[in-house]
């Protein structure tokens, strides 16, 4: 009887652990997705700001060049 | 069961639990690490964002100060504008519309930046954006708009926007020189720009809007008929009485535009969409039509070729009559009836054995396969290569997706000419999540196949085929490892073959042959089938039942034929017959795709019973009108099709009867067994027992030896000669086939369209894997 009880306990524990493992796998996948999504969004945001800064720098330079030409 | 066994089993269970606990611990740790990474990145990003915003704000101030300092110059400019035109002023010519407006004081630097940002994201004209934002009036900019502006080349436009470096552009142009194709596609495939950057640049370059900015709520209400939409590759997203806004992937030229205007009876305004956006839009607007086409096209257009009905009335009557005649015969004189049946069976056995042997002999000819040499490959001009579509249907196979992406990325084919379509079922949430978590190269497209019956692989393939862009199309399973040069070889093979060659089949084999006895048997069977049988079939030109994957088609022919039958569970074998009916030929190319052999017994039975059921279905479909089929296929084709389709289900079903008789005879020597094999029948059966069985085992050996020898010649070592000896145990495999065939017959009657899913990803030994070599 003891052996049978132990078998059933082990079986129950194993199935509980399997479920927990699966849950964790999904949590992990969703956390990775979240991290990737956030990184992507952040990279886009930073990229946009960098582009803005670069573009404004270009405009500033081109205006200066134009005004210098106009002065000359 | 003895105590030792019990102990070992307990120990194994405990080890499993320990393993699970360890895995849970590691996963929890990883989860914590990811959460920490997220928080840490957020902290760092905030600081970086703040610094950039400060830098931008400082630049605004400096620009405004600069404008203030140069009031006189601005005054002179105003005069020039009033006089109209400034073409003689090269400095002014270099300024862009926004800068000219800035100098005039019509807008601020911040407003210009916002408008440029919007243009960068969505495309369209800067003037329109400034007007839309309410920063300027249209009249204010009209004069400036009239001045000439240079239209930049796409690459230059991207460099100017800062999306692409000059070095990368030059690298891409060199690649374009070698392979041909659009520069945009090349930049995408090389990962140098994103899809958004490309389409924003294209929209700016062509002065059109981007789909993203437009209201799509009227798309379903105002949709055009699907065939018209497909003809123009355009979807109406909104319309009024005068104008109709359509989303397009490629801008229509003026002729096509006026043609479309005529159809929709309004002026057409185009907005640009990326292929991915278009795919989603198409699926939203035309979901019903796409689903209908993928499930019902063949059934409606060629009902005689559709397996949606398993038995016709005539077939039911025919089989009932045959059954009744047999029963009547047994009642009338059971002994002679059984002898008569035995004679038919023995003749069938004999014919099939002889036919198989000759097919294999033909298959050993050097010309039986299309062999493409390394020289031919190296001479190939990549500019000539067409767009190639790869369809990968999958269901609940998310575990093999990363490997699949790696394998397909290894294909030696210009990536800008690849259109890889991962076909995911709507309810396969896990696959969707895995794909989302991966940063897939841009030539991979994920197509979600809407739920609906029948839920089969051919239906998914049909769905993916509808908007395929390739001149050729191939199917790979999710666990496939095609030879990297396979697509190029097939392209050359098509060029070398007659015009009526519509399909080229690559050879399939297994990478995990050494996993267990079952995978060894399976490898031997495939080696025999794809290395000798199919090339033999190709030689004598009879219908080829295609393999499930790695069959390459001419897309237009495939579409013309009605593509795959979604109701047939071996749609590949059925398509082989339909190709032959339409006088197209199929050839076998000397290139391999490695798959994962089924390593589990039940899984194998599920797969095999589906295959056998499919062969029965295909036979029933094409034998609805035997005389018509005979006229369509001719003598050789007709009997070839009978052999190819009937041998798989019939032999395994008959085998157990004769094995039982053999065992019973040796065990009991009962006289009635002897009586069933009178005269010549006895010799025929004895020859079949000795020579026939020998031939079947021998052909498996020969097939395996053939492929191992070929591999060793090419210095590949993923199969060894050691595998050949396992052919001696082939009868065990035959028993399994018999079990599968009985199940198949039962399912054909009970659940003819049920697709028994084969589970993949059971390979345990990583050393089996060819990529590890």
Give an overview in words.
The complex is a heterodimer of chains A (72) and B (773). Chain A is mainly α and 72 residues long. Chain A contains 1 helix and no strands. The longest helix of chain A is centred in the middle third of the chain and has 70 residues. Chain A starts with a helix and ends with a helix. The mean pLDDT of chain A is 82. In chain B, strands 7-6-5-8-11-10-12-9 form an 8-stranded mixed sheet, sandwiched between helices. In chain B, helix 18 links the parallel strand 5 and strand 6. The longest helix of chain B is centred in the N-terminal third of the chain and has 67 residues. At the A-B interface, helix 1 of A face helix 1, helix 2, helix 4, helix 5 and helix 19 of B.
Per-chain topology:
The complex is a heterodimer of chains A (about 70) and B (about 775).
Chain A: H1 2-71
Chain B: H1 3-69, H2 71-83, H3 90-93, H4 97-104, H5 109-122, H6 126-132, H7 138-146, H8 154-161, H9 166-179, H10 183-189, H11 195-206, E1 209-210, H12 226-232, E2 234-239, E3 243-248, H13 254-264, E4 267-272, H14 275-285, H15 287-301, H16 313-363, H17 374-379, E5 388-394, H18 401-409, E6 418-425, H19 429-437, E7 444-449, H20 457-466, E8 472-475, E9 481-482, H21 486-496, E10 501-510, H22 517-540, E11 551-554, H23 555-560, H24 571-581, E12 585-595, H25 601-622, H26 626-668, H27 671-675, H28 679-713, H29 730-750
Parallel strand pairs in B: 1-4, 3-4, 5-6, 5-8, 6-7, 10-12
Antiparallel strand pairs in B: 2-3, 8-11, 9-12, 10-11
Helix pairs in contact in B: 5-11, 8-11, 15-20, 16-22, 16-26, 16-28, 22-28, 24-25, 24-26, 25-26, 25-29, 26-29
């Amino acid at each position: 009887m003891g052996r049978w009880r132990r078998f059933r306990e082990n079986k129950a524990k194993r199935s509980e652990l399997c479920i927990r493992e699966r849950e964790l796998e999904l949590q992990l996948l969703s956390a990775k997705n979240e991290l990737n999504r956030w990184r992507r969004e952040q990279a886009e945001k930073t990229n946009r700001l960098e582009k803005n800064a670069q573009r404004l720098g270009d405009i500033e330079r081109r205006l200066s060049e134009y005004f210098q030409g106009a002065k000359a | 069961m003895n105590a030792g066994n019990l102990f070992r089993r307990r120990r194994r269970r405990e080890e499993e639990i320990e393993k699970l606990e360890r895995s849970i611990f590691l996963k929890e740790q990883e989860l914590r690490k990811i959460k920490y990474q997220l928080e840490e990145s957020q902290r760092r990003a905030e600081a970086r964002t703040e610094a950039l915003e400060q830098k931008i704000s400082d630049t605004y101030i400096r620009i405004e100060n600069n404008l203030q300092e140069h009031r006189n110059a601005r005054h002179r400019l105003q005069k020039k504008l009033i006089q109209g035109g400034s073409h003689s002023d090269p400095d002014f010519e270099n300024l862009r519309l926004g800068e000219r407006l800035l100098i005039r004081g019509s807008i601020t630097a911040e407003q210009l930046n916002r408008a440029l940002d919007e243009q960068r994201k969505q495309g369209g004209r800067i003037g329109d954006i400034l007007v839309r934002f309410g920063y300027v009036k249209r009249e204010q900019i009209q004069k400036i708009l009239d001045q000439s502006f240079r239209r930049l080349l796409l690459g230059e436009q991207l460099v100017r926007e800062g999306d692409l470096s000059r070095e990368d552009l030059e690298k891409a142009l060199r690649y374009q020189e070698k392979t041909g194709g659009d520069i945009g596609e090349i930049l995408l495939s090389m990962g140098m720009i994103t899809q958004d950057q490309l389409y924003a640049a294209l929209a700016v370059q062509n002065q059109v809007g981007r789909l993203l900015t437009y209201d799509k709520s009227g798309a379903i209400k105002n949709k055009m008929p699907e065939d018209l939409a497909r003809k123009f590759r355009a979807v109406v997203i909104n319309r009024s009485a005068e104008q109709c806004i359509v989303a397009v992937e490629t801008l229509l030229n003026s002729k096509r535009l006026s043609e479309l205007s005529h159809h929709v009876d309004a002026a057409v305004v185009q907005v640009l969409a990326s292929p991915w956006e278009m795919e989603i839009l198409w699926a939203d607007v035309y979901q019903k039509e796409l689903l209908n086409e993928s499930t019902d096209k063949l059934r409606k257009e060629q009902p005689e070729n559709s397996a949606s009905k398993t038995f016709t009335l005539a077939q039911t009557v025919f089989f009932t009559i045959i059954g009744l005649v047999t029963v009547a015969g047994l009642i009338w004189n059971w002994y002679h009836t059984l002898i008569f049946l035995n004679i038919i069976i023995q003749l069938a056995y004999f014919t099939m054995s002889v036919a198989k042997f000759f097919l294999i002999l033909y298959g050993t000819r050097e010309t039986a396969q299309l062999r493409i040499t390394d020289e031919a490959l190296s001479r190939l001009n990549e500019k000539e290569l067409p767009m190639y579509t790869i369809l990968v249907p999958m269901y609940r196979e998310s575990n093999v997706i990363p490997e699949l992406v790696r394998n397909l990325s290894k294909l030696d084919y210009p990536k800008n000419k690849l259109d890889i379509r991962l076909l995911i079922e709507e309810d396969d949430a896990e696959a969707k999540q895995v794909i989302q978590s991966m940063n897939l190269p841009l030539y991979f497209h994920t197509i979600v196949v809407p739920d609906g019956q029948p839920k089969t692989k051919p239906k998914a393939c049909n769905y993916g085929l509808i908007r395929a862009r390739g001149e050729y199309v191939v199917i790979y399973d999710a666990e496939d490892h095609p030879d990297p040069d396979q697509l190029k070889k097939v392209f050359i093979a098509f060029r070398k073959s007659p015009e009526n060659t519509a399909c080229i089949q690559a050879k399939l084999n297994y990478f995990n042959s050494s996993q267990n006895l079952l995978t060894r048997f399976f490898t031997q069977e495939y080696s025999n089938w794809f290395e000798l049988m199919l090339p033999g079939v190709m030689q004598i030109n009879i219908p080829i039942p295609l393999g499930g994957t790695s069959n390459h088609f001419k897309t237009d022919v495939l579409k013309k034929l009605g593509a795959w039958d979604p109701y047939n569970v071996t749609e590949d074998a059925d398509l082989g017959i339909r190709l032959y009916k339409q006088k197209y030929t199929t050839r076998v190319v000397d290139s391999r795709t490695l798959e994962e052999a089924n390593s589990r017994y039940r899984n194998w039975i599920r797969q095999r019973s589906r295959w056998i059921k499919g062969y029965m279905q295909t036979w029933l479909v094409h034998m609805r009108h035997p005389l018509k089929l005979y006229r369509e296929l001719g003598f050789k084709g007709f009997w070839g099709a009978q052999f190819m389709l009937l041998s798989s289900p019939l032999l395994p079903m008959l085998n157990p009867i004769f094995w039982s008789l053999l065992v019973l005879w040796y065990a009991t020597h009962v006289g009635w067994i002897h009586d069933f094999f009178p005269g010549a029948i006895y010799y025929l059966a004895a020859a079949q027992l000795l020579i026939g069985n020998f031939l079947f085992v021998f052909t498996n050996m020969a097939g395996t030896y053939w492929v191992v020898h070929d591999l060793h010649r090419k210095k590949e070592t993923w199969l060894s000669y050691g595998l050949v000896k396992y052919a001696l145990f082939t009868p065990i495999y035959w028993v399994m086939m018999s079990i599968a065939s009985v199940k198949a017959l039962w399912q054909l009657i009970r659940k003819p369209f049920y697709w028994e899913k084969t589970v993949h990803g059971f390979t345990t030994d990583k050393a089996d894997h060819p990529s590890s070599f």
